[in-house]
Amino acid sequence: MTQATTQASAGATARPFFEQHREILKRALQAIAERSYWSAYPESPSPKVYGEGAAAEGEAAFRALLGKDFPLDQPGTTGWVASESSPFGVELGVRYPHPDVDALVAAAQAGMPAWRDAGPQARVGVCLEILHRLHRNIFELANAVQFTSGQAFVMAFQAGGPHALDRALEALAYAYAEMTRTPTKADWEKPAGKGEPLRMTKTFHVVPRGVALVIGCNTFPTWNSYPGLFASLVTGNPVVVKPHPRAVLPLAITVRTAREVLADAGFDPNLVTLAAEEPGEGMASVLATRPDVRIVDFTGSTEYGEWLEANARQAAVYTEKSGVNAIIVDSTDDFAGMCRNVGFSLTLYSGQMCTTPQNILVPSSGIATDEGHKSFDEVGAGIAGAVSKLTQDPGRAVELTGAIVNAGVLQRLDRARGIGELVLDSQAVAHPAFADAVVRTPLVVKLGAADEATYGSEWFGPISFLIATGSTEESLDVFRRTISAKGALTASVYSTDEKVLDAAEQAALDAGVHLSCNLTGGVFVNQSAAFSDFHATGANPAANASLTDGAYVANRFRIVQSRRHR
Amino acid sequence: MTQATTQASAGATARPFFEQHREILKRALQAIAERSYWSAYPESPSPKVYGEGAAAEGEAAFRALLGKDFPLDQPGTTGWVASESSPFGVELGVRYPHPDVDALVAAAQAGMPAWRDAGPQARVGVCLEILHRLHRNIFELANAVQFTSGQAFVMAFQAGGPHALDRALEALAYAYAEMTRTPTKADWEKPAGKGEPLRMTKTFHVVPRGVALVIGCNTFPTWNSYPGLFASLVTGNPVVVKPHPRAVLPLAITVRTAREVLADAGFDPNLVTLAAEEPGEGMASVLATRPDVRIVDFTGSTEYGEWLEANARQAAVYTEKSGVNAIIVDSTDDFAGMCRNVGFSLTLYSGQMCTTPQNILVPSSGIATDEGHKSFDEVGAGIAGAVSKLTQDPGRAVELTGAIVNAGVLQRLDRARGIGELVLDSQAVAHPAFADAVVRTPLVVKLGAADEATYGSEWFGPISFLIATGSTEESLDVFRRTISAKGALTASVYSTDEKVLDAAEQAALDAGVHLSCNLTGGVFVNQSAAFSDFHATGANPAANASLTDGAYVANRFRIVQSRRHR
Fold first, then answer.
1. Which of B354, B442, B350 has the alpha carbon at shortest distance from B401?
2. How many angstroms separate the CA atoms of A107 and A242, rounded?
3. CA pair distance B76, B103, nearest whole angstrom
4. CA B62 to CA B69: how far, in whole Å?
5. Phi/psi zone of residue B248: left (φ > 0), alpha (ψ -120 to 50 degrees), beta?
6. How far is A417 from chain B (nearest CA, A)?
7. What is the DSSP string of A447-458?
8. In this structure, are strands B239-242 and B211-215 parallel, antiparallel, or unpaired?
9. Among residues 482-521 of chain B, which lie with CB inside 8 Å of chain A?
10. Count of Cβ atoms closer than 10 Å to residue A543 Cβ
């Protein structure tokens, strides 16, 4: 009885959210069917789009959170933790509630029956309202992403704000389509010869799996967490958000917003909670292996992703891990454009994207270009020159590179410097605005095709390899072999020869990696557009799922039916 | 280049199959969206439906296979195995090719690129033609199912023939919808302020996971194997079919037919192969744990299903396992109808269905009925009487019970006889047509709610428990607890009280089991109708997936995209 009452009162409040956001949902459903260009949240932080005061207000809201207890009134709080350390050297000092895991999970479960029984429309309405309110305070969120991830502001705004919201909306659209493809009721009438037909009414319920865990990452706390968070929540599962200890604030803001909307709609706010921890405490492993945790979403290292897949066996586990992203350079009709484009991809966020190219495969005999034949070294010099041009002015450089996210990246960079001849050395850049920020430009090291022991693993950070191969055919072999073995989130090819482009596409299908061809303009291999590009394929070791498609949402709930005679 | 040529020639032949079966696919797509009554293949074996000679011809075709090498020209054959032993005591003696597993898997993989590149339409056309040809020889298949599973003829015909084909078609429809929800091409045009828009063409490929393994069961060799087999095949994966050593023939016929159609369409017939083995050889485990086997479908014991889930970690594993199906008896307005219906459910195929009710929960104080109050013992006597009526005439009895599928069931039956007071003893029945058939009628044992150590596990076979509970409330507790812990494929409730029906529905949602209410006529809890009822939920331990829904098909392939500027 209690459940029925909760449901009725919740439904009454949740319903208007669905009506209010019906159009954006409809448009998103169209977008996932077309996969052409669409975006719901403007990516430009310009005052023309967001209003004159928006940026300053957002920054002020962010600054007001620093050095304080973050306002989250969730149950089971045993203490407060401040674990962040900004790559820009800014003192954050925000303290987050540290939970008793048993209490947190029990609280998460309490609201589940009413949330389940409210149905897909009420739930998607609540989720769309969460996105709406996050968008209303997007500059606060962007600042939180910037100062925890080390991304430059524009990137933190775009990837951490509108693009993350777009991906969340995309996940909601897939999940809504999946939940509603089965009708809620069906009349079944089976002819029975000369007798009366058999008549039944069948009712189909969307039933959640159980508590969902989202394990956030350091570099893209919102973008990589939102699809799983919203896909799980909208399908009826309570969500425990376990942020990376160095990037808590963006997800704390997200959880705060979600709890507000849930409460406003008459649902239990504990359906979304934050599980902040001390660094090294291992709370993710404790949560992920609980019998009542039934979904896990993770972005991070291959090592931990594989541990989750092996140990969180009671759960559906979605992982995005490491990979060896590759570029095949065969020939080009725009050498300058190619070098600019590749150089930009290496420089963006100092190569700290899961999508940054690492292995640039070039025939040792060089390539044909619109500027005549270019030797292997000239190709290296072209890319190095493009990076240098982008990074020579510190003020411009830092707006692309941002800051180095943690000490592990710096150590790796030092190690990489010693493994081969340098095509381009990494430079330290003094950040004009943040004296303590650690900024580094890309390093490019020359290797041979035989050095697979080196380039066959991920070197996360501003580290790429210019690899001399015997021919484009060998480049294709290396591409296929390394990506099949170690995975990749992105791949690209440069060629003026249709046969080579076709062969690269075949290799990409065999290795199961998305391919970009001849990018020389304003589209970069490390960027994927929500509603059009899929992120990861789930078909190679870099990820066991794609953001976001049918497979990503379909197993987050089950259909349970009942039937009775009419 | 070879691949491209194969693809072109294959496409030319496969296309007509798609055109030829376009209407049935369209109708199936409508059916899965409506989930109301529809069936593509008539379930009546009547000559009026299938023609005068069909039954005799099919039986003759079946008999012509006995005692011979089964005609399968697949590669890697190292010898021949005859492992079947008919529950009807009929000598089968069919010899099947025993494969070298390495050679079989290598052969399976060879045809994959051309099958992948042919696309969803060509593949679904081929799969629909396979169903069409299986249907054309449906009596041959029905005989094969009857004499390997021990099902009576009509059931073998229906469940093993048209119903299995319906489930296969249902899986094809879901898979086709899933593959085609993403367009093959999309134009992407992103506004770029005052500049030229960014314009790209994106191509989306359906890419299979790899070799798929289907592990068949003894009791429903076709019905339980077809959804996985066809869902994997149509999404581009080669399929290795590993039949139960005692029920090879129905799947050998299926593989033969699939290979014929593949060859006719210009594809590599080795995309579907049979992996027959000696009993106890363990070929399923060898196959399931190979790195190149990427999908496993299994029906059988919880023990082996859990072993697969734990060990075939490189694969997407879909399992249907054991469970403790339950009936809650609270009250009824049709006592005779209830007893008839439950009695029929217990008798059908001697309780050897994964859907047969095991635990009948009745308040010890009895229940209200249209015939007045009935004590606990009177409820037991009513059900026992209904079973006796159905089984008293041997000729009629065997048409319901069929034969006992293997010695394990008999041993379990003997063991069950000793654990409590008998409500109904199991009887041996002399089969009028097959002197060596082992036939047994249902056993019903009386237990108390405290005997959970006994009724909390599956007793596969003609074994059910009439369990005295303190009240319907306790029945609901037992129901929720046992099904949450051990799973169930079916559940039902009898009550005239809407509140009890609602409570049972809530319990079913919590335990994640499909519920049938007040079945007193011609629909039985152990039967599910393709295109309307889902089989299993994937939400309790009896199965990690449902036949057949979006989640069942969506992860059998991945989308790999390429993009280039226009």
1. B350
2. 15
3. 5
4. 13
5. alpha
6. 33
7. EETTTHHHHTS-
8. parallel
9. 501, 505-506, 508-510, 512-521
10. 26
Task: Identify which of B310, B509, B565 has the shortest CB distance to residue A521.
Answer: B565
Count Cβ–Cβ pairs < 8 Å, chain A vs chain B.
194
Q: Does B237 touch chain A (CB under 8 A)?
A: no
What are the phi and psi torsion angles at B30 (to 5°)? -65, -45
With CB atoms and an 8 Å threshold, state whether B506 touches A3.
yes
* CA distance to A74, A94, A145, A278, A346, per residue, from A65 (Å): 18, 7, 13, 19, 33
pLDDT at residue B10, as a whole number: 54
- The answer to whether the beta carbons of residues A483 and A300 sit under 8 Å apart is no
Does B368 have pLDDT greater than 50? yes
Interface of B with A in 137-196 (CB under 8 A): 178, 181-183, 186-190, 192
Count CB atoms within 10 A of the CB of residue B238: 26
CA A164 to chain centre: 7
Residue from B509, B545, B520, B549 nearest B532 by CA:
B549
C-alpha span between A119 and B190 (Å, rounded): 35
Q: Which residues pair with B415 in a beta bridge?
A: none
Structure tokens at B125: 């056309």
User: Could you write out the DSSP letters of every residue in B274-295?
Assistant: E----TT--HHHHHHTSTTEEE
Helix axes B138-149, B112-136, angle to 10 degrees: 90
Of A36, A207, A519, the CB nearest to B186: A36
Query: Residue for token digits 């089968």?
Result: B92
From the centroid of its chain, how far is CA B94?
Answer: 24
Mapping DSSP onto H, E and C, the string for B3-26 reads: HHHHHHHHHHHHHHHHHHCHHHHH
Q: Residue A186: list chain B partners with CB under 8 A.
A: 34-36, 532
Q: What is the mean pLDDT of residues A4-32?
A: 79
DSSP label of A527: -
Asked whether the bond before B356 is cis by omega within 30 degrees of 0, the reply is no
Tell if the pTM clears 0.95, that is, is over it. Answer: yes
Task: Assess A480–B contact: CB distance below 8 Å, yes or no.
Answer: no
A199 DSSP β-pair partners: A189
Instruction: Give the tokens for residue A338.
Output: 């190619």
Question: Does the CB of B35 have a partner CB in chain A at under 8 Å?
Answer: yes
Q: Do B189 and A559 touch (CB under 8 A)?
A: no
Q: What is the DSSP letter of B371?
A: T
DSSP, residue by residue, B158-226: HHHTHHHHHHHHHHHHHHHHHHHSS-SEEEEEE--TTSPPEEEEEEEEEEE-SEEEEE--SS-TTTTTH
Q: Which residues pair with B535 in a beta bridge?
A: B547
**pLDDT confidence of residue B190:** 96
Given a cut of 60, is residue B64 above it in pLDDT? yes
| ipTM given for this complex | 0.96
CA distance A484 to B447: 56
3-state SS class at A186: strand
Cα(B151)–Cα(B141) distance, rounded to whole angstroms?
Answer: 13
Contacts of A209 in chain B (CB under 8 A): 539
d(C-alpha A132, C-alpha B19), whole Å: 46
d(CA B276, CA A217): 47
Dihedral sign, Cα of residue A427, residue A431, residue A435, residue A440: negative
Q: What's the gap between Cα B511 and its chain centre?
A: 21
A5 pLDDT higher than 80: no
Concatenating the DSSP letter of every residue in A498-511 gives HHHHHHHHHHHHHH
Give the confidence band of A426 by pLDDT, cuts at 50, 70, 90.
very high
Q: Six-digit token pair at B121?
A: 């339409």
**Three-state DSSP string of A286-308:** HHHCCCCEEEEEEECCHHHHHHH
Euclidean distance between the first and the last CA atom of chain A, given in angstroms as a whole number: 25
**pLDDT class of A8 with cuts at 50, 70, 90:** very low
- The token duo for B550 is 């979006």
